[in-house]
Amino acid sequence: MAERPVAIITGGSRGIGRGIALELARLGYDLMIAHFDFDEQGKPDENNAVEARKKAQTLGARCEAMRIDVSSAADRTKLVEATKSAFGCCHLLANNAGVAPTKRLDLLEATEESFDRVMNINLKGPYFLTQTVANWMIEQKKSDPEGSYRIVNTGSISAYTSSPARGEYCISKAAIGMMTMLYADRLAEYGIGVFEVRPGIIKTDMTKVVTAKYDKLIAEGITPIKRWGYPEDIGKAVGAIADGRLDFCTGQVINVDGGFHLRRL
């Protein structure tokens, strides 16, 4: 068994995923970063993954990066097998990969093609990757009973906040909430904690197209803490889980949203 704990982070090359990866590196984790980036011309792009890997290495982590499509069963198998080959173990899975609809369309005009794409990446992918990694963690527990194993899912305030122009995204994130509860229930007997981190308005590539809208809403007080969230805010929350500080809180949702979830008069 490796001396350092190992984490798999999907969507780990940029944005929230990179924030999680770098925080875990600071905490002494070695990393397997999975990504599926494209450049502006729609061609496969390794630049973000290379940069994330270098930053993790400067923090003392051994870090591997590989391109995989989390919605593909073959690619999920490839990711797990590559992690086994490179590190021999996995102590934390961060299901972070996710997409918004390619085009925002009103609920009455949305397409099945967009629905299938979003659900396959945001829900089916992490659901079955968790199944595979959880079974591997159970096997590891047999030879390492004192080892700590955890799974963290990246949800969204869209799980309960209606956005009729991206309904498929909202539904996928609502489902992540139930997925977290299901796996937390099923894996508790093995001492494997499962958690959801629920970001609010976070400064990433995904929110770049609505920057002006959210700048205005934040200034007007849509969140009690009047600022954007940043990937490192999510990283710190995942870090608290990875550090074992919430091990008696399996199934818990951690809102990282500047207080957006509060109902105020």
From TrEMBL:
Originating species: Anaerobaca lacustris
GO molecular function term, any single one: oxidoreductase activity, acting on the CH-OH group of donors, NAD or NADP as acceptor
Record protein name field: 3-ketoacyl-ACP reductase
SUPFAM superfamilies, sorted: NAD(P)-binding Rossmann-fold domains
Family: Belongs to the short-chain dehydrogenases/reductases (SDR) family.
Keyword terms of this UniProt record: Oxidoreductase
InterPro entries in the cross-refs: NAD(P)-bd_dom_sf, Sc_DH/Rdtase_CS, SDR_fam
